Amino acid sequence: MQNDAQRSARTDWDERIALRSDEEREFAFPDLDPPKEVRAVGGVGQVTIDWTPVDGAAGYLILRGTGERGPLQPVDHHSGDVLSVPSPPYVDTTVTAGTPYRYAVASVPEVTVLKGRPSQTVGAVPLVADGIVPTVDVSVDVVAAGTELAKPWVPMIGSERLSQLLCTDRTGGHEIGVELEDALRRMHDEIGVRTVRAHAIFHDDTHVITESGYDFSVVDTIYDKLLAIGLRPVVELGFMPRELAADPSKTVFEYGAIISPPASYDAWYDLVRALVQHLVDRYGLDEVLTWDFEVWNEANLEVFWSGTKTEWLQLYDVSAAAVKSVDPRLAVGGPSSAAAGWVDDLLDHTKRYGTPIDFVSTHTYGSPPLDVRASLERHGYGDLRILWTEWGVTPTHFNPINDSVFSGVFLLRGMKSAAGRIDALSYWVASDHFEELGRPPRLLHGGFGLQTVGGLAKPRYHAMTLLSRLGPVELPVTLTGDGADSLIEAWASRDRDRVAVLLWNLTLDQTKANGASELSRNIRLELPGVDPSWQATATTLEIGVADVATAAKDLPDWPPDDQLAELAEQTKLVSTPLELHDGTVELSLPMPSAVLVELQNPLLSPPHRPGQAHRG
Fold this sequence. Notes:
The chain is of the alpha/beta class. It has twelve helices and 32 strands.
């Protein structure tokens, strides 16, 4: 039965739906100016392109040509997804040493816009190495007041559909539900992650619709397990229950998730409202007010939504009305889109029709997340939260790069780029117990997980561990030299009497994922003001070090438990002493690699060191 408030909300929704036209207009994006100043500097094995930011730009395309009049084409860093980047600078390593290049930069208003007016061109020539490894100087102001260190990895992690927590089947001899639960617990306990976003809470295996009405008992069991870990769900409202689907033959994934619009939007409204009311009744309003309700997944791709954009916007309206009918303070948002598509369309729609929206969510792969704040400000939503509910090194399943050190260092670059401008950057996903295109065929198969079947940490999990060792206060850092702030980046922090500096060497060019000697750099890390009695250690991630893919290359597809235990020991993060001379540390960083330098007052207890071996 609906109470008076719910009936009023439903009537209000019906009246607003009636005002809509049959087809949504296409949002007209602004024609942005190109950057006024563009610079390109050649270095060993690379060219660094820098430019002045442009108001209203979500990102930038880097254009390159050869010869005096040759055509300009976007630089492709071979990620398999969008080519735009969120901000300067950009390091181009898809170059040939000694070849003159011309560069320009175009501003783009939205991620899927792949053209724009180019800036004036500038020239640069990448240098030949000649056996010399350039040095980058990194100086940290350890006595500065500093600012609060933003941690975009903490709010959220992605997961296989959460019904798999109840699965007793085995993959490679490992029970799926037990290990998925253990992987999520580890994300919470070791990394500090707070929420989990996953697909398919309305899939057939949760049995939410029965002949007599709704049954949320399976959902209860799932969420009880999650909350017992200390995690909260991001409730993705999807996919379509078979009983409500206009066309249940439209499916995606090996497990047959239905991607059809509902046969009745009234029935969808009733289901969403019933779920939200049930969650409030079971867990309490104060608890559920901390959750987010996200409408569908990547409806801008035909593979995930068989309807039109107009039909999805209607689904959003109905879903938002249903959530808010329980309590207007509950948070709902979207478009949960691929490559930040439909963000402007949704915001234009909600602004025109008054549909509530509390956050914007979207996804991309292969580059740091773009700056969708430009879209929010265009429509007068500058204060909305921004949740990238999927992000990763590649959008492709079974890709070896997922198991690589490159992907771990990529994670560091993306998180630093997101810090302070994005509320959550959710890596997709926690565990290789993931079966959208089928269950894993072997231990190392290029799975999306940060952890393998069997619970081994991949380099991306190790990267999360290094991030978790940063302190609460961010310190100013200055970098100079060949590849400074483009190839080489640094993130420095302080925590009481401890200084932690995370450095890495990375190009976005995935053709260099297995390393490129010409991109190696020596690092001179200067820490003026550090007490000379402090003890320094280094924790390193590079090819062959804390690298499960290299260590496991000669093992069988499914190593037995004793080999897994040995592999865990071989590939854990290890901290080693460093020499500190007059506040200076010297290091060597191949590409790809990362190192966490920690300095500790010896009179205090030593900090917890990452890398304890773990298996599920």
